[in-house]
Amino acid sequence: MVDAAGHKGTGVIAGWTMRLILCAICLLGSVAIGGVDPYRRLGGDERLAALAALETKPFPVDLLASLDGWTGEPITPERLEGRVLLLMGWANDDPRSVRLLPRLARLHRERGDEVLVLAVHQRDGWDSALERIGAGRVRCPAAHDAEGALLEALHADASPNVYLVDRAGMIRVADIDPRDMLKAVGRLMRETPEQARADLPRRVERLAEIRELLPDKTADPESGDAAGDEAAGGVSPGAYKSAPWPDPNLDRLSALNVQGHKLPVPLGGEKWLTPEPDTPIHSRVVVIDFWATWCRPCLRAGERLDELQKKYKDDLLVMKIAGQSAGEKYPEDEAAIRAFLRDHPSPCAELIDPSQKLFSALKIRGIPHCLILSTDGVVRWQGNPLSPRFPKALEQIIRADPLLAARRAGAGEAPDDDG
User: Fold this and answer.
1) Alpha helices by DSSP H, 72-173
2) What gap in Å lies between CA 359 and CA 353, rounded to an integer?
């Protein structure tokens, strides 16, 4: 998400709140190892925590081999060893990304012996980027993340995303504000690999401080994260952390991978075409299905979801979200969806999202696409609902969910395991 000033963040006020808190921590001396971290990152509170966690990990150098379209000498583990890396995730259709390219080119030209520079283009739009490169308007080394694996591993969101890797091969600053980019590069250049390694404990402590200061959404009844249900069921956040969730779906996804995280934007902007449920949404496991009337695989997936909704009626809420148009022939407006539903009634909740807010935030490139959320609002599985792994993952999530387990224990019931 980008604000009017061109700075990204899920919440400008929330982001500044976190930055002020971090400044206070530093002034109090609680982050003392290696000195104060002076760099700004881009994002709201939860993203800042995710970036801080990333900064305690080695750079995934093996994923450089997944890039293609290199315009310069490819970066290998051997070339990277002992050097600083500045990597920018960019998009040719994003003006902010394009404006940063000359700064990367200058750094490459003047400091290329010590600092490796790489502009990694996102999966989509590479053909137009090649036109810019061919015209000589990209003068720094560039490559294409055709599989999306590297930028996904770095939690890249809206372009640009700038990452710095220190001489020890660790992600030192993730999604740095471009205004602090050159200052941070200069600091990392002055470090030895040993000094870079010595900074890790400070970043680990910084991560712990940020996590401690994040608001506890499980205690906020307005957050939409099943707070009231957890309190009523006596379920602690620790129960969700230790629950036996299914392994993440490792298939190539046609969307941003948010498994293990909450939705990038909350539900609530959609229009219900069927009656809203009497109970809170997150009192049950939720399946969000993005579909369209013109999409035949979506219709097959819809039949499967109808059966699962009937099977797990008390523990599951399937929310089918329409609104994915395909030109003038298939506008997918409310009238079209209602006409389809009259001929194809479903036991699932039917909604339409003309604004495509969640669809866009998830960067969905193909449908059907679904997400399974546990009752704490975290995405536990994501992918194609026609996958043979989907019903198995759903059953495991329903069995593992602490709130549902507590409810069944109180009623002396067990989940349906037929079929």
Assistant:
1) 77-80, 95-111, 126-134, 149-153
2) 9
The pLDDT score that the predictor gives to residue 65 is 93
Read off the pLDDT of each residue in 368-394 and give the average, rounded to a whole number.
Answer: 95
Measured CA angle at 320 (ends 45, 349), to 5 deg: 105
Q: Can you tell me the distance from the alpha carbon of 136 to that of 42, in angstroms, rounded to the nearest whole number?
A: 30
pLDDT, tens digit, 9 for 90 and up, residues 92-144: 999 999 999 999 999 999 999 999 999 999 999 999 999 999 999 999 999 99
* Cα–Cα distance, 361 to 111 (Å, whole number): 36
Residue 95, C-beta contacts closer than 8 angstroms, at least 6 positions apart: none
**Superfamily of domain 224-411 in the CATH hierarchy:** Glutaredoxin (3.40.30.10)
* CATH architecture for residues 12-212: 3-Layer(aba) Sandwich (3.40)
**Can you give the length of the chain in residues?**
419
Beta strands at 84-90 and 115-121: parallel, antiparallel or unpaired: parallel
Distance between CA atoms of 292 and 332, rounded to whole angstroms? 7
Encoded amino acid at 317, one letter: L
Please give the model's pTM, rounded to 2 decimal places: 0.48
The answer on pLDDT for 250 being more than 90 is no
Distance CA 173, CA 39 (A): 8
